[in-house]
Amino acid sequence: MKTAIIIDSACGVKDLSKYKDTFLVPLLILREDGTSLKDDENFTEEQFNNLNGKELLRTSQSITGEMLNKWDELLKDYDQVICLLISKGLSGQFNTFKMFANNEENGYKGKVHIIDNNGVSILIKRQLEEVRYLLDKGLEPIEVCQKIENKYENIKGYIIPKSLEQLVRGGRVTKAAASLAKILKITPILSYTGIIDKEDKTRTFKKAIENSLDKIIKNETDDYVIDIAYSDCSIELLEEIKKIVIQKNLKIGLVEKLPFVIICHTGAETFAFFATKVNKF
Predict the structure, then answer these.
(1) How far apart are CA 84 and CA 231, in angstroms?
(2) Which of 106, 136, 207, 271 has the most CB atoms at less than 10 Å from its CB?
(3) How far is Cα 73 from Cα 149, in angstroms, rounded to an integer?
(4) Do 73 and 139 reside in the same domain of the chain?
């Protein structure tokens, strides 16, 4: 059986040359003037940084027609399609395309699978690798989807924004709260479980990193690596973060930049940590 994989740009992977039978249907980035940009391989980091420095950017789901056209195109050459999309807790993307995939009249039911993956950023990249791994082992697409859903059903990671500026710009944190946090040197720790929520707070950014890693150590068992996702920061800061992870006797897995559609909301110098048991189900 020949199976294609579709990701959206919440994965952060734009160069698909290393990923067999994998295709990108981008999310949209919305500008202040109401126009939209496809977050695809042609949208560069330089372009994004230039816009993000000047405007309050927002995000939107993939164009419905573009996704459905991609399904139609792929089903001419592939038997089935697996979709790894941004978490249903962050976007309506999952529910929209799950509805289309379950509709018997359009011919997608049983052929297009939308994984309930709780995924974003580096999580989806891991899932992409794992889907490929399982397919290469000979598992049927429906079995692959079930294994990914089971593995990530109770995923928990931690997000630490060094600055609250972007969250203030997006209305997620008030200016007064951000000013008070700055004066008191309070750094929030956010949890990620498919949705983003408040977890804890500390007096320094370094302590927030350490506390997040301690929470992972306390909650995880068996062998795992720490995957790190980050937004624009200095090389020195990134190396400092890696050093903290190593000092906790943890092994570093993937280290990747956050996708543009996430940086729109979190801003620069944001770090996310996930414990990953590689290819273990």
Answers:
(1) 22
(2) 271
(3) 26
(4) yes
Same domain flag for 93 and 198: no
- Number of domains forming the structure of the chain: 2
Give me 9's structure tokens. Answer: 């740009």
Residue 16's domain is classified under what CATH number? 3.40.50.10170
| pLDDT, averaged in runs of 10, over the chain (281 residues) | 96 94 98 95 95 90 98 98 96 96 91 97 97 97 98 95 66 54 71 88 92 95 94 95 97 97 89 93 84
Q: Kindly tell me the burial class for residue 9, based on how many C-beta atoms sit within 10 Å of its own C-beta (0-12, 13-18, 19 or more).
A: buried
Residue 63 CA to its chain's centroid (Å)? 19
Nearest to 4 by CA among 70, 76, 80: 80
Alpha helices in the chain (DSSP H): 45-52, 64-74, 93-101, 122-136, 141-152, 165-169, 175-183, 205-219, 235-247, 260-266
Domain with 253 in it: 157-276
Which residue, 152, 185, 207, sits at the end of a domain? 152
Q: Are 272 and 192 in contact (CB under 8 A)?
A: yes
pLDDT at 268: 86
Q: CB–CB of 100/68 below 8 Å?
A: yes
Sign for the pseudo-dihedral over CA of 152, 9, 243, 18? positive
pTM for the complete prediction? 0.92
- Residue 141 near residue 158, CB atoms below 8 Å: no
Tokens for 271, please give them: 């770090």
Are 67 and 174 part of one and the same domain? Answer: no
Judge if 245 and 134 occupy the same domain: no
Structure tokens at 119: 């995924």
